[in-house]
Amino acid sequence: TKESMDAIADVVKTYFPHNKCIDVAGGMGLLTKLLRDRGLDVTLNDISATGEGEGHKYWYIRANQFAPVDIVSSAAEVDYGDYNVAFMSWPCCDANWDHFVLDKLKPGTLLIYLGEGSGGCTGSGLFHERLRKYFHELDTLSEDIEEHHVRFYSMHDRWHVYRKLNKPFTN
Q1: Residue 73 backbone class (left: φ over 0; alpha: ψ -120 to 50; beta: rest)
Q2: ∠ CA(11), CA(31), CA(77), 5° rounding?
Q3: Residues 21 and 34 sit within 8 Å (Cβ to Cβ)
Q4: Other C-beta atoms within 10 Å of 19: how many?
């Protein structure tokens, strides 16, 4: 909703007035466009249909693209440390790249995630394991955004705002 996008933009502008954001595997770029319209500096990328993002093949019919996209063949091609805010919206539950992105974010980075919890339809098991170990949810900010979220019938997704902790990664 408009209110959700306004709340997200407010959170980012408050914590990172000189924001540099990435919309990870953002498909056709609707979220990116809506956030850019609110003054955020957002880079959109998506994983190539020939690389790790087999589940994203349908995004490559780009007749109705909302924002220009940097297509990468692998999540490893992106320097996620360049960004202080990362958006992840509905990463596939069988993704083999989503946890890699979390590993590469620098400490202090905000992760704004739209999806279901562990065992749901979004994010791999490793993704949710990394969230539990290396990120802290900022409950008040999550609630501010979630307050305006409209979900489809039978969906259990919600907005979460996390901050990456300053802990060394261990496998």
Answers
A1: alpha
A2: 95
A3: no
A4: 19
Given pLDDT bands bounded at 50, 70 and 90, which one contains residue 167?
A: confident
Tokens (6 digits) for 163: 């901050």
Instruction: Give the predicted TM-score (pTM) of the model.
Output: 0.87
Look at residue 164 in the predicted model and tell me its pLDDT: 96
Helix/strand/coil percent split, the chain, to 5: 35, 20, 45
How many whole angstroms separate alpha carbon 47 and alpha carbon 25?
6
Taking only the tens place, the pLDDT of each residue in 36-79 is 999 999 999 887 544 444 444 444 455 577 888 887 878 888 99
Instruction: Give how far the C-alpha of residue 74 lies from the chain's centroid of Cα atoms, to the nearest Å.
Output: 16
